[in-house]
Amino acid sequence: MDRTQLMTSISADWESFSKLEIAEKLPYFTRNEKIYDCLFAQQLDRGRLEHLFRTADALRKMTKTREGMNIANSLLSHKRAMLYFVQPSTRTFLSFLNACHILGIKTSEIRDTTTSSEVKGETPEDAVRTFSSYVDMIIMRHPAPGFVEKTAWLMNRTDRPVPIINGGSGKDQHPTQALLDAYTLYKSFDGEIDGKTIAMVGDLKRGRTVRSLSYLMKNYKGVKLAFVSPKQFRMENDILEFLRRHNIPFIETEDFGSVMGEADAIYMTRIQDEHDKAGESKAVDYSPFYFKKEHLGAIKKDCVILHPLPRRFEIDPAVDEDRRAIYWRQERNGMWVRAALMAHIFGVDSAIAHE
Ligand code: NCD
What we know:
It is globular and about 55 Å long. Helices cover about 40% and strands about 15% of the residues. It is built from 14 helices and 11 strands. The strands form 3 sheets. Strands 9-8-7-10-11 form a 5-stranded parallel β-sheet. A 4-stranded parallel β-sheet has the order 4-3-5-6, with helices on both faces. It has a two-stranded antiparallel ribbon with strand order 1-2. The protein folds into 2 domains: about 5-175 and about 335-350, 3-Layer(aba) Sandwich (Rossmann fold); about 175-275 and about 280-330, Aspartate/ornithine carbamoyltransferase (Rossmann fold), CATH 3.40.50.1370. Strand 1 (about 30) and strand 2 (about 35) form a beta hairpin. The chain is of the alpha/beta class and about 350 residues long. The structure holds N-carbamoyl-L-aspartate.
């Protein structure tokens, strides 16, 4: 079946398309065996991850000199991207913006629906279609789960599709955060994520970063996961089912102390109380899920501590000075690996490897 036939056969209407299994949807978001729309962590298989990590490393190395930076800046200087971030964002927005600038991509942005024609009643779908008239790529963060995917589906049906990158979709997914988290683990463990024990701590129910990162774990052999959360905010069943299907062992516990000493990586998260409908968070004592300075003595000597940030109280700032606290490096890694992803989508990754 050629691409056009595939598109028409599987994309008839959004309702039926949205119900398909991820594996059935992926061809629709892929071109020439490469990611076209980056929407789900499930799109990132091991070969692709390692390719992106190597591209990010090569780009970092290449841009250390002015000459190298000038070459990088010219790679995609004929492209324009739109950042449509209508949910609060600091790191994801800035790292994408600066990743675009490294590659020479020109950028425009909307960060608030009150400054777009959506206030006049234009649908978000029409708004996004309008952006695509002016740019070559849309990077977006949206509060509604599934909206980024719907946008990509819609764009692929027009005569001027542009790649869509998911910078966070509701409580659902944050694939490029998982990408940078895995890149950070890869760099911290000298390329060996296989066999590691990773503890994810906090609001696992509503945190999209831990959901996307869990999906990525299917790429590694012998990884064990420990989910540490208050009982109200346990990891959702769809993720637990996914892990069972892929034979990835996991435990669930409320006792942070019981897993601290075993973990090779501790991934802390913030309580996601912006999703509260009935003040659920107020009823929860979150303090047993804080990483305190005294815990530094209880973790392995080469355990790494990650956090997607922003943090509130989950990690005592006194922990920042410890060499095992790598969240500041993690956020910087995001810029490089997001640049690598865009270079891949636009097909200039081989030029980076060549340099
Ligand atoms: C995360 C997010 O937005 O999901 N932040 C980020 O992208 N670095 C995590 C969070 O807000 O807690």
